[in-house]
TrEMBL record:
Coiled-coil positions: none
Keywords, ordered alphabetically: DNA-binding, Transcription, Transcription regulation
InterPro entries to which the protein is assigned, alphabetical: Homeodomain-like_sf (IPR009057), HTH_TetR (IPR001647), Tet_transcr_reg_TetR-rel_C_sf (IPR036271)
Keyword Acetylation set for record: no
Protein's UniProt name: Transcriptional regulator, TetR family
Domain HTH tetR-type residues, every copy: 9-69
């Protein structure tokens, strides 16, 4: 007699979050399948069945990270009741709070993964995925500052240059947090950078 296939006995989203945290803490090359299965509480065959190989799991973890810890900060830029400077400050402070959250690994998974591309530590498809995410962030910020440019005191700088500056600053903040800087340290750095928006 044929029997029905076994149902998955774990919550895929919760398990994916655990994998994300391992990649975030250890980086892609520093994460083994054993690290993942131990953290996720599943065996290798269940991991392969649910997520595919390590690279596929990593790409899914990146998507999960973006949805939970990435795009939320952008909402601060669109609170139009505030000045542009206040919105940019709140956007960067929101990122800084995430970077130094004691309940999360330090730094930023996207920033960390970006640095791993140069050392050829990421598989080609994952590297292309990370580069695409960074390009999309740059495009989103550029379009935002194009809309804000007229009469907002940023006419001396092109929207793309400002977007590049902010993305570079975000990477720097992430590395500083990874290196032990606390929230107040990051906020001081952000406050210095806000002179651009006077």
């Amino acid at each position: 007699m044929m029997t029905a296939g076994r149902h998955r006995s774990f919550d895929k989203d919760k398990t994916l979050e655990k994998a994300m945290l391992v990649f975030w803490k250890n980086g892609y090359p520093g994460t083994s399948l054993t690290d993942l299965t131990n953290a996720m509480g599943i065996n290798k065959s269940s991991l392969y069945a649910a997520f595919g190989n390590k690279e596929n799991l990593f790409n899914q973890a990146i998507e999960y990270y973006l949805n939970k810890h990435g795009v939320v900060h952008l909402a601060e830029l669109f609170k139009t009741e505030l000045s542009l400077k206040e919105r940019v400050k709140n956007y960067l402070f929101s990122i800084a709070n995430m970077l130094t959250n004691p309940d999360l690994p330090k730094g930023c998974l996207i920033s960390q993964s970006t640095s791993e591309i140069a050392g050829c530590c990421l598989p080609e498809n994952s590297a292309m995925n990370i580069n695409g995410i960074n390009q999309q962030t740059l495009l989103t910020l550029t379009e935002f500052f194009e809309e804000q440019q007229a009469g907002r005191g940023i006419d001396e700088n092109s929207p793309k240059a400002i977007a590049n500056y902010l993305l570079t600053l975000q990477f720097g903040l992430a590395i500083s947090a990874r290196n032990g800087s606390n929230l107040e340290d990051l906020k001081e750095t952000i406050n210095v950078s806000l002179s651009l928006f006077n």
